[in-house]
Amino acid sequence: MRRIVVVGGGIAGLAAAWHLARARAGAVVVLEREPLLASHSSARNAAIFQLLEELPGMLALARRTRAHLDALVGPGDGGWLRRTGELFVAPAEAPLAELAALAREAGIAHARLERGDIAKRVPELAGGTARYGLLVHEAGVIDVHAVAARLADAARAAGARLEVGRDVVRVRVRAGRVEGVELAGGEVVPADAIVLAPGAWAAALGAACGAPLPLVPLRRHLAQLDAAAPVDAGEPIVWALGDDCYFRPESGGVLASPCDEAPWPPCLPPHDPRALELLARKLEALAPPLGEAPVRRAWACLRTFAPDRVVVAGADARVEGLFWLAGLGGSGMTVGVGAGEVVAALVAGEEHPLATVLSPARAFPPVAALGAAG
């Protein structure tokens, strides 16, 4: 039986294992370096699902993710997603007009709002810079724990093995094809196919086996704030365009980010107090009541991007048997399960309509642009 190793037990890696195991593509094992599954970027993000994705292939991946999770976990508020909608706001109308055109073309339900309606929907925006808004109805907050647990259970039920505390340090290659992975401590796990889904660690593992890709981990900060007045859990996610930042309801307050980005080595990143100062300045302009809200807790996470910010999923032409599932950036929760479907199909020798646009062989723009924007 074909031996398939998935490196990384986050949402994407678990999804790939589930798709592979249920397709009976081989003997599937997931190797996760941490003691718990889905404990790095999968656990430290804002848990936002947003269907309105403008980059190539990303909307299709989001729709595939939604379909799989509706079937696997259950649709609606009793399932994997608390539908709140997402409100994009800006001081000028032009950037929202572009998003509205994208939503119309994709058949995504939306509504245009102006200042008065914006403040009614989200009282925290009253008196701020949000003059125009676009409310996208198909968006909300993901139950990350439920998704990770259900994917893990489904992968195991289909026959995959999930092993934690298994730190892959090297992909072993002989005569131009993979032969296994080496763990910290020297143990070798044989493999006929390897899926690289270790988040921020993907680029280093690929480069070390002769398959470099321009993937860059970027640090971003999030903070949970205690608002002066309780924030309604039904309020939409708010995303400010231009001077980017976002917030959403969380435990009576808000979860917010200044949308900062800085290249960072693979690790559990420390948080920088200056990011909280940046967040306070942005919120003071956008949502004055939140500008001086006390910080309950703050943390940083890593989001790994290809230079074009599109997911990388597919076979590496330089090393036979090596497959990528990486560069999910800030959209891993939205597109990860769909991306797992793509790579699983390719590992199984099947075609997939998104294979070309997500291919690791595509032409990438210069990597220098990463980290320059929020």
Would you spell out the secondary-structure blueprint of this structure?
Blueprint: E1 3-7, H1 11-22, E2 27-32, E3 48-50, H2 58-72, E4 81-83, E5 86-90, H3 94-106, E6 110-114, H4 115-121, E7 132-136, E8 139-142, H5 144-157, E9 161-164, E10 168-174, E11 177-183, E12 188-190, E13 193-196, H6 202-208, E14 216-225, E15 237-240, E16 245-250, E17 253-257, E18 262-263, H7 273-286, E19 295-305, E20 312-315, E21 322-326, H8 332-347, H9 355-358
Parallel strand pairs: 1-2, 1-13, 2-9, 5-15, 13-21
Antiparallel strand pairs: 3-8, 4-8, 5-7, 6-7, 10-11, 11-12, 14-17, 14-18, 14-19, 15-16, 16-17, 20-21
Helix pairs in contact: 1-5, 1-8, 2-8
By CATH, the topology of the largest domain is: FAD/NAD(P)-binding domain
CATH superfamily of the largest domain: FAD/NAD(P)-binding domain
SSE class = alpha+beta
Q: How far from one another are the termini?
A: 46 Å
Helical coverage, percent range: 25-40%
CATH class of the largest domain: Alpha Beta
Number of helices: 9
Shape: globular
Query: Could you tell me the radius of gyration in angstroms?
Result: 21 Å
Beta-strand content? 25-35%
Summarize the structure in words.
The chain is of the alpha+beta class and 374 residues long. The protein folds into 2 domains: 180 residues, FAD/NAD(P)-binding domain; 135 residues, 2-Layer Sandwich (D-Amino Acid Oxidase, Chain A, domain 2). Helix content is 27%, strand content 29%. The chain contains 9 helices and 21 strands. Strands 5, 6, 7, 14, 15, 16, 17, 18 and 19 form a 9-stranded mixed sheet that branches. A hairpin with a 2-residue loop joins β10 and β11. α2 packs across α8. The radius of gyration is 21 Å and the shape is globular. The chain starts with a strand and ends in a 16-residue tail after the last helix. 50% of the residues are buried. The model has no long low-confidence stretch (mean pLDDT 95).
